[in-house]
């Protein structure tokens, strides 16, 4: 039994069942070594519902009609908020400097959609927005930038647009001063940059209808989420994206993630010194511009 759950007097009964339900619904898989981490994060939710065991909470989530609304709180509890501006910036620079011009040339006046999912508290999509702004793409082309996360609490923070010093540890100071206003203890993103993100959505990639919505874009940043997913869950999401993404299209995952043993629908390519998974032109699925 984990420390948190034990201190709250929660019986461990049903913990594995709850783990498997979380995996099915959220894609996140907690193996035996990490099971106590999940228990600690969910234990306060179990107590708040006045349940005595993880099995009670499992039944609530799986069978009670009200349990459908509880998943938002589960996502909040399980989310990993660690992120910062300018993270793995080489890949974003390659996308903005090479991929975006190619897509704009192909799409003409039609919108070029970009998704950042999961976006956590907003640092990644705002980094993308900063680079697009610096290169003048918002003025020269029809760029639509969207962001989403499974955690409503993360989306609330992103919508608020306030950040502590830790989020700026990799961002050049000149860009921080250009795009943020300093308050007493926080930096607030300027409205003009924040508005470049057209929508902040609560979205679960394990739901096919949500993955299909994201997959309609030719450029997707889906970084630092698959490291928490099982191989089965990654394959489900990637195949849905591959079905829906136009061709050509570009899927950006983090440097610590690989799709090479997951799907053959994308080709790993080096673009301007960064690696991306590319759905080649002429392949099936999605809508051509």
What share of the residues does DSSP label as strand, in percent?
Answer: 15-25%
SS content category: alpha/beta
Under the CATH scheme, which architecture of the largest domain would be assigned? 3-Layer(aba) Sandwich
* Count of discrete structural domains: 2
Q: What key attributes describe this structure?
A:
single chain, 289 residues, alpha/beta, Rossmann fold, 2 domains, seven-stranded mixed β-sheet, three-stranded antiparallel β-sheet, 13 helices, 45% helix
Care to describe what's here?
With 289 residues, the chain is α/β, with parallel strands linked by helices. It has two domains: 3-78; 89-279, Rossmann fold (3-Layer(aba) Sandwich), CATH 3.40.50. Helices cover 45% and strands 15% of the residues. It contains 13 helices and ten strands. The chain has a seven-stranded mixed β-sheet, covered by helices on one side. A three-stranded antiparallel β-sheet has the order 3-5-4. β7, α13 and β8 form a beta-alpha-beta unit. α2 (15-26) packs parallel to α4 (54-63), α4 (54-63) crosses α5 (67-78) and α6 crosses α7 (123-135). The relative contact order is 0.13. The model has no long low-confidence stretch (mean pLDDT 94).
What's this entry about, in short?
This protein has 289 residues and is an alpha/beta fold.
Topology:
Blueprint: H1 3-7, H2 15-26, H3 35-48, H4 54-63, H5 67-78, H6 89-107, E1 112-116, H7 123-135, H8 137-140, E2 143-149, H9 152-160, E3 162-163, H10 173-179, E4 180-182, E5 187-189, H11 191-194, E6 197-202, H12 208-215, E7 219-221, H13 231-244, E8 249-252, E9 267-271, E10 274-279
Parallel strand pairs: 1-2, 1-7, 2-6, 7-8
Antiparallel strand pairs: 3-5, 4-5, 8-10, 9-10
Helix pairs in contact: 2-4, 3-5, 4-5, 6-7, 12-13
